[in-house]
Amino acid sequence: MTAFTLASVAALCVLVGLAFRRGGVRFAAFAGTIFGIHTLVSCSLAPRVPASAWPLFAYGQCAFFLHVGSYARRGIPGLARRLLVAWPGSLFAAGTFLAIPWAVVGAFTPAATATLLVPYAIALAGLVQSFALRPEEVHVALGGPPVDALRRADRAAPRPAATLRVVQISDPHLGSFMSVARLRAVCERAVAAAPDLVVLTGDFLTIESNGDADSLGRALEPLRALAGRTFACLGNHDHETPDAVRRGLAHAEVTLLVDDLARVETARGPVEILGFDFAFRGRRERLAAVSARHPRAGSTLRLALLHDPGAFAHLPEGAADLVFAGHTHGGQVGLVSLGLPYTAVSALSSVPDHGLWALGGMRLYVHRGTGHYGFPVRVGVGPEESVVHVHDDRHHSR
C-alpha cells in the first residue's frame, strides 16, 4: 500500500468520525459511502498519474479532505480558504467522479491512462462555469391549448408590449461557491432590473452557512428596496435550519409564504402568489389541500412558488397559471451549454430539470439555480440570472 493510499484512508477515517460526531450513525454511513467512493477511485488512479501532474494530483487530494473536513467548523470560508482549499478540493472531487470510467478500464486499456487528465480538465471548465452568471431575458406565454402530459414547452418570442417582469433567485446556497458579497451583488442587479416582482424559490444555505442568519440577511439586504414585491418559499435544505432562514428573509423584508397566499398590486394589475412548503412525502395530498384552502376567485393571474419541480405533476389543474421552481440546479451536469437540453437529471428521472414546461393549462419555469450544492461543480449547465417576462395570452381582464 502506497503512502498516498495510507494517507487517504486515514483522512477518510477522520471524516467519518467527524460525520458521526455531527450527525450520528446515518450521517457517518452517508459520508463513508460518498467519500469512500472518492477515496477508492482516487487511490486506484494515483499510480497512473503522469509524473508532471503528480504534485497537482496530490494537492487536489489534500485540498479535498481539508475542504470536506472544514464543514465541521461551519462558517462561510474566506477568500484565501476558498482559493487554496475549497475550489481546488471541489475541482478534484468532480474530476475524480468523472474519472470513474478511467479507474474501471484503466488497468486494461493503455489509452485510458494516456487520457487520464481529461476528466480533470472537464472539471476545471466546470469550476469556471460555476461562477459564470450572465444576464438573460426569458419570455413565457400563458394560454394556448391544454397539454395532456408533462412536457417541455417552447419559450415565447420577445414582444414590445408591456408584460409582468419577474426576477427569480433560486438555490443560492451560501457557502464556498456563493459568498455574501456575490449573492448581494445578484440582489443589487435584481433591484436594478426594476422588476414587478422578485421570487426566491428556496435553498438559501449550506452545511457551511447553516445557522448563520446574519450572512443570509446581509446578502439579501438590497431586496429591501423592493419591499412588498419580494416573496419566497422554502426548499428542502431550508428545513435543516428554518429559524435562520426565516430571520434572514425577515431582515431583507422578503415575505415568506409557507402554504400561504399573498395578493399584490403591480403595474400590470393584481397578481396572486401562492407559496408551497417543501415536502418529500404525500405531495399530491398536501398540494391539493393547500390549493383547496386558497381557491381561485375570478381570473386574477396566479403565480406559484414550488421549490421542487418534481411536485408540479401533482399540482391540481388550474391551481396556478405559472409555477416557479428550482431545486435541480438545471440538471447541474449536462449539455445545456452546447445548446442541447440533456442533463443528468433528465437522463435518470422524469423530473423537469430546467426551462419551461407545460401540463394541462399550467406552465412551469425551472430556474437553473443561482448557486449550487451537492455535486462539487457545474459541468455543462451554467447558473442562471434572468428576468422572466410573463405574457398573458388568455385575453381576460384582470
Keyword list:
single chain, 398 residues, alpha/beta, Purple Acid Phosphatase, chain A, domain 2, 2 domains, seven-stranded mixed β-sheet, 11 helices, 13 strands
Structural summary, described in words:
With 398 residues, the chain is α/β, with parallel strands linked by helices. It has two domains: 3-129, no CATH class; 135-392, Metallo-dependent phosphatases (Purple Acid Phosphatase, chain A, domain 2). It is built from eleven helices and 13 strands. It has a seven-stranded mixed β-sheet with strand order 2-11-12-10-9-8-7, with no helix packed on it. It has a six-stranded mixed β-sheet with strand order 1-13-3-4-5-6, covered by helices on one side. Helix 10 (283-293) links the parallel strand 8 and strand 9. The protein is globular and about 70 Å long. The termini are far apart. The relative contact order is 0.14. The model has no long low-confidence stretch (mean pLDDT 93).
What portion of residues is helical?
25-40%
Rg calculated over all Cα atoms: 22 Å
User: Roughly what fraction of the amino acids lie in strands?
Assistant: 15-25%
CATH second-level architecture of the largest domain: 4-Layer Sandwich
- Total number of β-strand segments? 13
Distance between the termini: 73 Å
Q: Estimate nothing, just give the exact number of structural domains.
A: 2
Name the average pLDDT: 93
CATH class of the largest domain: Alpha Beta
**How would the global form be characterised?**
globular
Question: What's the helix-strand series?
Answer: HHHHHHEEEHEHEHEEEHEEHEEE
* Helix-strand category: alpha/beta
Number of helices: 11
Order of strands, main sheet, comes to: 2-11-12-10-9-8-7
**CATH topology-level name of the largest domain:** Purple Acid Phosphatase, chain A, domain 2
Looking at CATH, the homologous superfamily of the largest domain is Metallo-dependent phosphatases
